[in-house]
Predict the structure.
Amino acid sequence: MRAVRYYNPVSLGRWAKLLLAFLLIISLKCDHCSTRQPRHHHIDTGLASYYGQTYHGRVTASGESFDMTQLTAAHRTYAFGTIVRVTRLDNKCSVEVRINDRGPFVSGRIIDLSPAAARQLDMIQAGIAEVTVEPLNAAEFARETRSRSRHQLFAFSRPKPRINNK
């Protein structure tokens, strides 16, 4: 009877080891091989609210102090530092805010704004308003690809939010 010969991975030939190393490197670096494509221009529609004086000076989820005079917002999933354009649907006023906190924690709402941003949208009296939320910078792409990539390739600076009333 003939003996079955098993190959020990340690004793593989030089070419096989190089091929194995090459395939390992390609699998780690190949972010575009995933079938899931990032959302570049995804627009959410829903209710926005604002939070203010009781939270002024408290530490946000991003670690910075909440300043109610700045154009900032809280979102459940967008990466900290993402700039989003929030547009109120009934009066078409819009404002660009930077995500620096998590929330809202009330069912049915998609974003919590600072009082400064709420003032730009003219929603101080009403307290809530129907809005669209559109991410504008590359931090959103970083959020989408975080699960696929373990290495940081780029660092993005924080652009200043702009006010756009129509």
Notes: The mean pLDDT is 78. Residues 14-29 form the longest helix (16 residues).
